[in-house]
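Board notes (copied after class):
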Amino acid sequence: QVHLVESGGGLVQAGGSLRLSCVISGVIFSGHTMGWFRQAPGKERQFVASISWSSGSTYYADSVKGRFTISRDNAKNTVFLQMNSLKPEDAAVYYCAVLGPTNYWGQGTQVTISS
């Protein structure tokens, strides 16, 4: 069983920065990919960024490229999402996920942007 706990969300002004963390407990295999997704009210959950647990290869949604950075600390079983130059449209609940044969999700952390 894999358990994920996100933290780091909050209220920030447009143009500001936040760093989200996701601590993962349970067995993680090299084939797993870690991802961040977000869901705004009335909208579908959308992909934000992902990172390979083994190689560290990263992928980003076009809407966040150049502003967000995903990283991991394998020793601490933690995935991070550094979010810079935040825009009002970035406001959402952000979810961490372990993607593999079975997907696991965290409970989400709220990011609110004031303009």
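Comment from the instructor: The first strand starts at residue 3 and ends at 7. The two ends are 40 Å apart (CA to CA).
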